[in-house]
Amino acid sequence: MDPRKQRTVTALLSAAEELFRAHPADDVTVDDIAARAGVAVGSLYNHFGSKAGLQAAVVENALQADRTYMDRAYLRSGTPLQQLYAAADAYLDFYLAHPDYFRMLAFPGAPGQYAAGHELADRLARSVHEQNERLTDALRRGVDAGELRPVDPEAVATVLWASWNGVISLHWRPDALRREEGELRTLLATATEVIANGLLPR
Predict the structure, then answer these.
(1) Contacting residues for 150 by C-beta, under 8 A, at least 6 apart
(2) Where is the HTH tetR-type domain (predicted)?
């Protein structure tokens, strides 16, 4: 892409992310986004077609960032249990680098918050499901290899994912319960260890 066009696209995406973070999507206008980006409104339509198209691009950026971080866990060698620990670390790294993307994927609002409605909400849900399937696959391989006791891999994957989300959300608290990066990493390892120990053959 032409460098000038790329700068415009980047500015629009950045402006949209900032505004969608601060306000309900329905309250954000194309004029607001263009003004924040410092470009003409026509540039938004030229590059994204509509506000819904721009919002879909923001969501796709979040999904791509998530995939990039999680690939570090699942594309590496190691036992299924080692992949679980690596996935927890990668998930936290994703959150620390992209907290707004994390919120978008882990704690989405109602479908109505998206300009593209249910279609975009479903896209988010499918992507989260795809990532959980990778976790499920690691667990299934561990069970099949006899490294883990027979369990429902999908149910355990959901428990792991939900517990990781809960631990990471402690970073948002405004009170004494807030936890910083080092503490979050320890807590994630603890949650994963507790579940992993329960998965070991008896």
Answers:
(1) 143
(2) 6-66
